[in-house]
């Protein structure tokens, strides 16, 4: 959702123009590297050339790497010195004369050119650009009816801010590419989300870029600015609680190395990319096995595929607020520059990200990701032994991990995204929800006055914070010690003790089932205890177990909407907490290719109806991390971080504890130089 904050970020982002641009070199660092500024410019030039004199009507909605086929990537990785890298291609979506066009641009030829161009005739529209969101949000300020509506409420137009909202789909047979515009009041606070101007219904047609519907339905009290400000310089004593500073000192520099987009640390090596739609992408994660003296594959490609955020107010003013943050607004497009020493510790190293603006010109997001070693005082493993006569044995290893972090700010919400690699072989995925609640204005000033469901919590006078969900669906393409894998569900089953000679009556044991097809792997978690394991049935440990990695879910939250409710039809990929599909390069986005006003006919839930074979195949896990958010007053005016996550952990992948011989980091004493 565009706002003055997003506009400022867009203006701070750096458009990049090259005076000399050469075709993509065959010496490109890595076939999964994101497109470079020079490549974005080459794409723009090739696309504009293909449209000729009409190129002025082209808008770039998405430009990203056309990912090479997996076998080609692995072939290149296994023997880089002797192999020519796969051809560099860009996947492009443009709007042209109110149509969506899909193009592929070959960047490896002497003169990059469009090698494929098709008109999309299906349902849904492409990713929204910042520029069109900003232009749509600016329209009401010069619209006569809106000006009169603001005057009628006794408000000052100079303090009015507009933002945009996607409209969803509710059974319409035909759809125009439209947004709704929401109005807020900033007088006395930067936290305009806490001061909504209710009752004004504005619809903008993006292709025409004009207001096509306006209705001033009612007026209600605009909440006061008091106690809504979050900027530190606007706060007043008393302050607290006081917190003392600490420093991470690395006199020999960081323990990791970054070469291009390849990050090496401890026993891990992986590739870090960036995409305007999904944000950070971790690829080719492999871990070094000391006993086998080689790196072993764990993860081919992982990212947040879609984020579904339905609000629970079914009234005329709110029912349509069911956002798809990746497919509509872009998790990468919404990424923000990280602040050194605040978003990331002082020992962090930062990387920039790039995307194509609406005009195709590359735009830089500085410090879009940070990488740092995390010293949190955790314990990697320990044991104290006192049972051996005349001995006390204590062995402790302090834990260090490597964190890759980014932040996406989609309208009022900030998402902190952490990927944490541990020397034990585990990868932890954590999401922190933070930011500003989405509220509606009411005439009540005290909760005792509320006599009917207002679909939220009163967090301040005249202010209801609405119930809502966050569902983040991860695409996890595991290649556990190779690509042919199987998914095994290991249930914990209670059994009666058959031996009457012992007093125990019961115990639990395990029963493992290997999913043969997609339908057998679809799971709604939390109903029974189980382990979820991806195994390589073609590789075994020394004692004969299938090597594997297991997914350890976080707190379980499943959708509560009716499955035939329109938002849930579009968000049907959240119906299960876990899905398993055979690898298909085209199946990247759980909500479908074109999510804005989509109709649910191109989602993960639809793909899996083919019920394809997944046993001993190249498979992909899709795991949904969910939050049911009932707001509380402590979330007002800005909420402290609410975190959750999950973990991928080796399960018979190694023959023994991987970090048994790992030494704790040596103590470091900071030195002061005068």
UniProtKB/TrEMBL annotation:
Occurrences of domain Copper amine oxidase N3-terminal (ranges): 126-218
The protein's UniProt keywords, in alphabetical order, are: Copper, Metal-binding, Oxidoreductase, Signal, TPQ
As cofactor, the record names: Cu cation
- Say which enzyme class the record assigns: oxidoreductase
UniProt's post-translational modification comment states: Topaquinone (TPQ) is generated by copper-dependent autoxidation of a specific tyrosyl residue.
Gene3D superfamilies for this protein: 3.10.450.40, Copper amine oxidase, catalytic domain
Protein's UniProt keywords contain Nucleotidyltransferase: no
Q: Where is the Copper amine oxidase catalytic domain?
A: 248-659
Pinpoint the Copper amine oxidase N2-terminal domain residues.
30-110
EC annotation from Swiss-Prot or TrEMBL:
1.4.3.-
Name the source's superkingdom.
Answer: Eukaryota
Pfam family of the protein (one): Cu_amine_oxid
Q: Does the keyword Metal-binding apply?
A: yes
Q: Cite the PROSITE patterns for this sequence.
A: COPPER_AMINE_OXID_1, COPPER_AMINE_OXID_2
Cofactor binding note from Swiss-Prot or TrEMBL: Contains 1 topaquinone per subunit.
Range of residues in the leader sequence: 1-26
Q: Hey, which family's this protein in?
A: Belongs to the copper/topaquinone oxidase family.
Protein name, as recorded: Amine oxidase
Source species? Rhodamnia argentea
């Amino acid at each position: 959702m565009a706002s003055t904050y997003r506009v400022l970020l867009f203006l701070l982002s750096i458009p990049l123009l090259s005076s000399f641009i050469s075709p993509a070199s065959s010496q490109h660092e890595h076939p999964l590297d994101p497109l470079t500024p020079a490549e974005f410019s080459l794409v723009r030039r090739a696309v504009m050339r293909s449209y000729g004199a009409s190129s002025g009507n082209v808008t770039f909605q998405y430009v990203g790497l056309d990912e090479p086929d997996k076998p080609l990537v692995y072939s290149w990785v296994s023997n880089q010195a002797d192999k020519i890298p796969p051809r560099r291609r860009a996947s492009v979506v443009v709007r042209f004369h109110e149509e969506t066009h899909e193009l592929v641009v070959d960047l490896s030829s002497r003169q990059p050119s469009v090698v494929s161009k098709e008109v999309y005739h299906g349902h849904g529209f492409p990713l929204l650009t910042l520029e069109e969101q900003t232009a749509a949000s600016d329209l009401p300020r010069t619209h006569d009816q809106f000006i009169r509506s603001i005057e009628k409420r006794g408000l000052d137009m100079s303090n009015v801010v507009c933002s945009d909202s996607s409209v969803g789909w509710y059974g319409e047979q035909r759809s125009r590419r439209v947004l709704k515009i929401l109005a807020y009041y900033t007088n006395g606070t930067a936290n305009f989300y806490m001061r909504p101007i209710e009752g004004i219904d504005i619809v903008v047609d993006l292709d025409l870029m004009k207001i096509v519907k306006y209705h001033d339905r009612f007026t209600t009290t605009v909440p006061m600015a008091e106690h809504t400000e979050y900027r530190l310089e606007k706060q007043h004593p008393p302050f607290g609680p006081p917190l003392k500073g600490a420093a991470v000192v690395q006199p020999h520099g960081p323990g990791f190395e970054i070469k291009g987009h390849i990050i090496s640390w401890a026993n891990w090596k992986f590739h870090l990319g960036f995409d305007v739609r999904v944000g950070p992408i971790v690829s080719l994660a492999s871990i070094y096995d000391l006993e086998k003296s080689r790196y072993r594959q764990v993860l081919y490609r992982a990212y947040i595929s879609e984020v579904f955020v339905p609000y629970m107010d079914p009234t005329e003013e709110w029912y349509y607020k069911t956002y798809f943050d990746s497919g509509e607004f872009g998790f990468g497009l919404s990424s923000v520059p990280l602040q050194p020493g605040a978003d990331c510790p002082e020992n962090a190293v930062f990387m920039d990200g790039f995307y194509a603006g609406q005009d195709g010109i590359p735009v830089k997001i500085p410090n879009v990701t940070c990488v740092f070693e995390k010293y949190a005082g955790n314990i990697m493993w320990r044991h104290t032994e006192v049972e051996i006569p005349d001995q006390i044995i204590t062995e402790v290893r302090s834990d260090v991990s490597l964190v890759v972090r980014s932040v996406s700010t989609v309208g009022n919400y900030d998402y902190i995204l952490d990927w944490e690699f541990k020397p034990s072989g585990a990868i932890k995925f954590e999401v922190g929800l933070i930011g500003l609640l989405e509220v509606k204005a009411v005439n009540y000033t005290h909760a005792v006055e509320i006599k009917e469901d207002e679909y939220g919590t009163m967090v301040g006078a005249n202010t209801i914070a609405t119930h809502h969900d966050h569902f983040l669906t991860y695409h996890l393409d595991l290649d556990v010690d190779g690509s042919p894998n199987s998914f095994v569900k290991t249930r914990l089953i209670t059994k009666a003790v058959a031996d009457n000679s012992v007093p125990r009556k019961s115990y639990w044991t395990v029963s493992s089932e290997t999913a043969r097809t997609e339908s057998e792997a679809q799971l709604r978690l939390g109903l029974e205890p189980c382990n979820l394991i991806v195994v390589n049935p073609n590789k075994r440990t020394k004692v004969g177990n299938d090597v594997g990695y297991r997914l350890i879910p976080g707190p379980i939250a499943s959708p509560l909407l009716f499955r035939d409710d329109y938002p849930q039809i579009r968000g049907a990929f959240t119906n299960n907490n876990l899905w398993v599909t055979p690898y298909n390069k085209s199946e990247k986005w759980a909500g479908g290719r074109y999510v804005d006003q989509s109709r649910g006919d191109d989602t993960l839930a639809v793909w899996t109806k083919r019920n394809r074979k997944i046993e001993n195949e190249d498979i992909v896990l899709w795991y949904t991390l969910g939050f049911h958010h009932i707001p509380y007053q402590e979330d007002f005016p800005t909420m402290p971080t609410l975190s959750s996550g999950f973990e991928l952990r080796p399960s018979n992948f190694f023959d023994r504890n991987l970090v048994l011989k790992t030494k704790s980091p040596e103590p470091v004493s900071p030195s002061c130089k005068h």
